[in-house]
């Protein structure tokens, strides 16, 4: 996926999880953060960030913060809507007969349902923006919704669906995502149970540019 426009800026602070203050050409601007996760190791005062400008005149903020360069020099895409978009692009290259986003299964809406040769596939997508020593971790904040989705996928696998959880690694140079059991032990338990039930765990490596994100698997 490619952003239609991009603006460099300098991060100053994040008063709450929805907005940040950045400096654009010396002017302080309030922008929307397209990620409700903590991102504490990324959004550090003085770091480089990149914004996209909204064409909605009714919005309170003109820009969305979508990318940041970590102190290690690695560029991260932190747009929480990007993983589903790049996975859809990737799935469209995989010869499925049907790709249906937002599929209702049980008590959840699973990100994708695909069909091929009469077989049904379910896939839930998770974006990984937490990296420690070259390894990706998910989640960076507790996610009861994520646990629920894993249990639904495990149930679907037992019922004969081809089920998968796809971790989209929103940075270069990382090929593995592990459960962040320190932050949310229950997610790690649910992931292990899902894998034991037959849910496939995918680690989707990406290339990141300030204005672009795409899967390289």
Secondary-structure element pattern, one letter each:
EEEEEEHEEEEEHEEHEEE
Low-confidence blocks of residues: none
CATH topology heading of the largest domain: Trna Endonuclease, Chain: A, domain 1
Approximately how much beta-strand content do the residues carry?
35-45%
Largest sheet: 5 strands, mixed, barrel
Q: What is the count of β-strands?
A: 16
Number of domains: 2
Classification by helices and strands: alpha+beta
Distance between the termini: 15 Å
The coarse silhouette is globular
User: What helical percentage do the residues reach?
Assistant: 10-25%
Number of helices, counting only DSSP H or I runs of 4 residues or more? 3
CATH architectural label of the largest domain? 3-Layer(aba) Sandwich
Question: In what order do the strands lie side by side in the largest sheet?
Answer: 1-2-3-5-4
Tell me about this structure.
The chain is α+β, with helices and mostly antiparallel strands and 217 residues long. The protein has 2 domains: 7-77, OB fold (Dihydrolipoamide Acetyltransferase, E2P) (Beta Barrel), CATH 2.40.50.580; 82-215, Trna Endonuclease, Chain: A, domain 1, CATH 3.40.1350. 17% of the residues lie in helices and 43% in strands. The protein contains 3 helices and 16 strands. The protein has helices spanning 82-91, 144-158, 185-196, and strands spanning 7-13, 19-24, 27-33, 48-53, 63-69, 75-77, 98-105, 108-116, 119-128, 130-132, 135-138, 162-169, 177-179, 200-204, 206-209, 212-215. It has a 5-stranded mixed barrel. Strand 1 (7-13) and strand 2 (19-24) form a beta hairpin. The longest helix is centred in the last third of the chain and has 15 residues, at 144-158. The radius of gyration is 18 Å and the shape is globular. The chain starts with 6 loop residues before the first strand and ends with a strand.
């Amino acid at each position: 996926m490619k952003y239609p426009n991009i603006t460099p800026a300098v991060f100053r602070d994040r008063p709450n999880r929805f907005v940040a203050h950045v400096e654009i050409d010396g002017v302080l601007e309030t922008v929307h953060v397209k990620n409700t996760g903590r991102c504490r190791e990324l959004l550090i005062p003085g770091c480089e960030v990149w914004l996209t400008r909204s064409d909605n005149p009714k919005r309170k903020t003109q820009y969305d913060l979508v990318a940041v360069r970590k102190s290690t020099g690695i560029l991260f895409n932190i747009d929480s809507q990007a993983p589903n978009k790049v996975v859809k692009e990737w799935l469209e290259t995989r010869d499925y007969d049907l790709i249906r986003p937002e599929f209702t299964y049980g008590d959840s809406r699973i990100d994708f349902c695909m069909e091929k040769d009469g077989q049904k596939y379910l896939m839930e997508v998770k974006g990984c923006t937490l990296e420690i020593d070259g390894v990706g971790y998910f989640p960076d904040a507790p996610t009861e919704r994520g646990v629920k989705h894993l249990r639904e996928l495990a149930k679907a696998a037992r019922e004969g669906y081809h089920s998968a959880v796809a971790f989209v690694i929103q940075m270069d140079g990382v090929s593995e995502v592990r459960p962040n059991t320190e932050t949310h032990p229950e997610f790690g338990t649910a992931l292990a149970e899902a894998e034991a039930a037959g849910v496939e765990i995918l680690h989707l490596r990406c290339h990141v540019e300030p204005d672009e994100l795409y899967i390289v698997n």
